[in-house]
Amino acid sequence: MKLAYFLALVCLTAPYASAETPPNFIFFITDDISPDDLSIYGNEHVETPNLEKIASQALVFDNAYLTISSCSPSRCSIITGRYPHNTGAPELHQSLPQDQQTFVQSLQDAGYYTILSGKNHMGKAKTLGFDVSSDSHPAGSEKWVEHLRQRPDDQPFFAWFASHDAHHGFTINGKAPTYEPGDIDVPAMMFDGPGTREELAGFYHEVSRTDHYAGELMKELERQGIADNTYFVYCSDNGRPFPRCKTYLYDSGIRTPLVIAGPNVEVGRTDSLVSSIDFSATFLQLAGVEQPETEQGVSIVPILSNPEATVRDVAFAERNWHVYRNHQRAVRTGDWLYIWNAWPERYSVSGESSSYGFQAVKELWEAAEAGKLTDAQALLTTKPQPAEMLFNVKSDPNQFDNLAANPEMEPTLSRMRGLLQRWQEETGDSVPTHPTPDRQGLHEKLGGKVKRGELPGAAHDATTINASGPVTPSS
């Protein structure tokens, strides 16, 4: 599509985008980073000075939530604007079916030059809508500046820059500071042991390496004179790769850092609730491109100019197969987080919380056997699990105090159950009768293959459903 036609399309479809200078986008998606791992969210032990500088010129979101805390299904959800069970790729290591529409395809059709560099984990780049793709190691970020310099200068661009940082295993190089294990602040849900501290030191080096490349990208945008017309978005696909974080539906798993800088973005912080399912609609509105009917999210553009604005009051998340069989669902609204577990008779684990190939995991389970953990830390090592959990995230930010059995919470519990049931019914969610089995034993090192079973939502043909479920409690 010629640029002139693109400009005409923008002028006709969206007054928010400028017809003279269509905006560019850098979507920096990290791997396995929780908000509390960054200095802009209060971590005083990890150096992220470039993100601090970007945040001082951006809007920082304090209540941004993912639809799932698992690598590939999270990315497939983001790129389609659909819940994982509606994408046809709700479980780890599944490729997005080719009949699913991506927002990148819409941008490409509208004249955008599209780039994917770093971790893909969604399928064939061309099929997803990318003109060019590349990967590199260890960070996945090494070719990003090169891509910006080699792009056509007569097209706006969308760059999906996906780092391998900060995923196990951790690789040290000169692009970020190193950390001493003794200086680490161990998150409260984990056991404080020497192996855990050693792993966290490597992890935080890679967290800081994402900051290094964020700085390199901003310098290149400034060098090219396009920083003022480029939206820069920094987020993650799931929580940190440690016990009770990655794959879990607590804030340590499904809450994502989210920093957005760009044209007409108000500088500051917002506590407005947003979901990663909303990113797609947001990019398309900012670009002046029509949102396809397959998308289930809502645009957060109103919040970018007014941090007090509200686009949703309810966010949903799911937990599906990730090495081990799981089926859990979450509702987040107001100060409340509700988690429902379809299979409470099973351990609530993933590789990052059960495999003894990880030092932090081994130390946690051994500490549980020795009676050295709090009840909240030890919960994942026990069965049966709670069928329901209810947390006040404001007074209990780590979600350690399950209020589901408190009689005084029955009205809130009933309301959350109702929201979840509506969402399940309207989006076609279902519990598999013959689910994908565990790939390996409880404490084995990660590896091996699995024969895929029935997928969540398959019983209701959920991949053909576009309904979003409730966006507000009364919707």
TrEMBL record:
Keyword Cell cycle recorded: no
Biased composition (Basic and acidic residues): 436-454
Bias (Polar residues): 463-475
Name of this protein: Arylsulfatase
Organism: Allorhodopirellula solitaria
Signal peptide boundaries: 1-19
Pfam families: Sulfatase (PF00884)
Taxonomy, superkingdom: Bacteria
